[in-house]
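Quick one, probably user error.
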């Protein structure tokens, strides 16, 4: 199988590296991104570099993308000179980006009209999961292309599930991100409460790891909070801001009221105003302290 990968950012680089480690022939991984230096790093390890979307699309059986935002996904798949323009019906085209459900369905419908196979397959696990090959991959689309692409998914993830028809993978990712946002802020509140009550924060995190209050965000954000490593994050808060915005749009479309999510969004927005350099999601603890009048 020849696999293409477009987008070598914080997540994409780790994902592509795992494919490179596990694919039978390293040159059967084809890579493309806008930064030539990133392509050169991959080709130095044995991958095949490509010089355009047309070039990579025409060479692979499965094409994976990991892109920064909704606009880029739309343009790269459906725009002039985009993937759909050069793809064929034997390929599987996959978007691992976090976008809105409408965009995933539009891409699927556009692909279907051209006789192409498209899957929305957002990911969870952060840069660490991408580097370790332990991502959760949530897929929306038809079973036949899912089965064909699963070999590639298995090279990057530990949990791969077909969630339902087109858009279901994206919807599941948004459900996950809702919990990431609310659990992040809840963990931040817990850390501040513990610290201000005289509890040793490291001891608190250890106790919470085996108590009903445990969560991935407790385990993940706890050490960052203890060490005050709130800046220059590989999992920056701005990504969560983007995801919460998409969640808000979806809840409006569905006529839902999600008060805890809205409260978490307010804390996240306040944290973005703290003038930190690429703040980590754990930096929400600083907003809780500011709101509480704690230096």
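Nope, works fine. Designed sequence:
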């Amino acid at each position: 199988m020849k696999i293409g990968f477009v987008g070598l950012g914080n997540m994409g680089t780790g994902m592509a590296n795992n494919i490179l480690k596990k694919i039978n022939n390293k040159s059967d991984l084809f890579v493309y991104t806008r930064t030539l230096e990133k392509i050169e790093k991959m080709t130095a390890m044995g991958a095949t570099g490509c010089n355009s979307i047309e070039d990579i699309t025409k060479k692979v059986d499965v094409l994976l993308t990991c892109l920064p935002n909704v606009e880029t996904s739309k343009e790269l798949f459906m725009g002039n000179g985009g993937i759909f323009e050069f793809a064929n019906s034997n390929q599987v085209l996959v978007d691992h980006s976090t976008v809105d459900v409408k965009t995933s369905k539009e891409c699927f419908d556009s692909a279907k009209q051209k006789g192409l196979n498209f899957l929305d397959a957002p990911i969870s696990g952060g840069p660490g999961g991408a580097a370790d090959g332990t991502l959760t991959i949530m897929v929306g689309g038809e079973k036949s292309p899912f089965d064909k692409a699963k070999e590639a998914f298995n090279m990057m993830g530990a949990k791969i599930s077909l969630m339902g028809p087109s858009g279901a993978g994206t919807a599941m990712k948004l459900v996950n991100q809702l919990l990431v946002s609310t659990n992040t802020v809840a963990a931040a509140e817990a850390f501040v409460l513990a610290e201000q009550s005289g509890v040793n924060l490291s001891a608190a995190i250890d106790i919470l790891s085996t108590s009903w209050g445990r969560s991935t965000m407790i385990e993940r954000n706890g050490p960052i909070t203890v060490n005050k490593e709130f800046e220059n994050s590989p999992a920056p808060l701005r990504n969560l801001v983007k995801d919460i915005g998409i969640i808000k749009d979806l809840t409006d479309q569905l006529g839902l009221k999600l008060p805890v999510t809205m409260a978490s969004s307010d804390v996240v927005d306040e944290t973005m105003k703290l003038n930190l350099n690429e703040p980590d999601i754990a930096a929400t603890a600083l907003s809780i302290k500011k709101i509480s009048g704690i230096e």
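Strands lie at 3-6, 29-32, 48-49, 62-65, 92-95, 117-120, 123-124, 135-140, 157-164.
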